[in-house]
Amino acid sequence: MPQANLRRTPLYELHLALHGKMVPFAGYEMPVQYTAGILKEHLHTREKAGLFDVSHMGQAFLTGHDAAAALERVTPADVVGLKEGQQRYALLLSDEGTIKDDFMVSRLMDEPGLFLVVNAATKEADFAYIAAKVDGAAVLDPQTDRALLALQGPMAETVLKRHVPGVEQLSFMKIARFDIGGAGAIISRSGYTGEDGFEISVHAKDAEGVAQRLLADPEVLPIGLGARDSLRLEAGLCLYGHDMDDTIDPITANLAWSIGKRRKLAKDFPAGEAIMNKLVNGTPTKRVGIRPDGKAPAREGCEITDKSGRVIGHVTSGGFGPTLNAPIAMGYVETQFAADGTEVDLMVRGKPMPARIAPMPFAPHRYKR
Amino acid sequence: MSEVRFTDQHEWVRLDGDVATIGITKYAADQLGDVVYVELPPQGKKVGAGGEAAVVESVKAASEVYAPMSGEVTEANAALSDDPAKVNADPQGDGWFFKLKIADRNEFAKLMSDAQYAEFVKGL
Lengths: 369, 124
Description:
The complex is a heterodimer of chains A (about 375) and B (about 120). Chain A has helices at about 10-15, 40-45, 65-70, 125-135, 155-165, 205-215, 225-235, 260-265, 270-280; strands at about 20-25, 30-35, 50-55, 60-65, 85-95, 100-105, 115-120, 140, 145-150, 175-180, 185-190, 195-205, 220, 285-290, 305, 310-320, 325-335, 345-350, 350-360. With about 375 residues, chain A is of the alpha+beta class. The N and C termini of chain A lie far apart (about 40 Å). The model of chain A has no long low-confidence stretch (mean pLDDT about 95). In chain B, about 45% of the residues are buried.
């Protein structure tokens, strides 16, 4: 049901033309699915190529002679060491060392600044926060007139190189400027599905043309946010606001890997001392993967108990994994229960359903490294 | 001749003697999207009209299925355990959920006819 105060991406009309089922998401009217449905859209992405509109996400350039060092004021990632043509996953931290968002930061070839992509739900807050923190050393320039498309799946390279010769030279987490049908694009080899694929940033006015061009290829189907969520959950990827939020530190969230090696030694990020203590000494709870033994999904908020019925945690993301044809979940448990294989119960509709702590990803990653 | 009637919660009931077969309508199945799991009531469970009887889950969410009539569960559709997609493929046939031995025949007449349900759905 459309609401007057929801925003629209540059691809809104296209979503309607494709019979997208529009729902509110992060203040935008977005397609949760198209005519194929969530299950088929999910499976198609892992089999061929899926095209996602993720233009609701926030894009920005960070410029200034010391942009990288300035950004390191708010993230424990190694930004100064980020090489040209490279993209990296990073956490945005509050002064207290809790997670305000996760984002992608890139350095483009022969360009002095940084290119940032942040989550839709937090983009205004993120940009205000970063701008304030880098003040004096760098300038944040939000790109509100850019769109973002994701082309994901084993056929993504085959499809994209028809339109962007040379794009196949990019390996996982590399980024560069290209031309697609006359439109300037920033293309990274990355995504949110666990599959090989690309994220394509273009000017808003070029978005529909690029989308139509890719959708015309027989391997490509449009994919909605419903399948985007089931794909990323199978890939063990976090969703900010659900699997971590501003009460969670990077160690509890099991994202210590995103802290740069040099940064760990220097502890030169918000609450660096405290966070490194947690890394060394452990935290009371930890983010884990969970596989129910049976077929019933366990959803966000579901309590996790030990076998005696004591509550030891809760589910933060849960649903059905079409590729596994089984329910999967992510959540937090007391650290003593966090080892793979630990047997727990999930309280679904008041009944304990047996489950096990499981390694992630649930579906193997297929990145082109 | 068995007759099928409908609820405003998008369940259908087919009455044969005093056995009611119950499922969700095509409208409900289409709204839900791909069904991935169904929780059915155990044999012998007593349900009241309007009470929760089953749960149907799509990829995104779980929805309650209510008993359109009071009675005792005699059988649940075991085929849905291995193939929940039957609910989408044939919601008013093979995708049936459970059968009840009904307690009160009068409850059936209170439900919507095919034509009334069609009107109801048009207004949504």
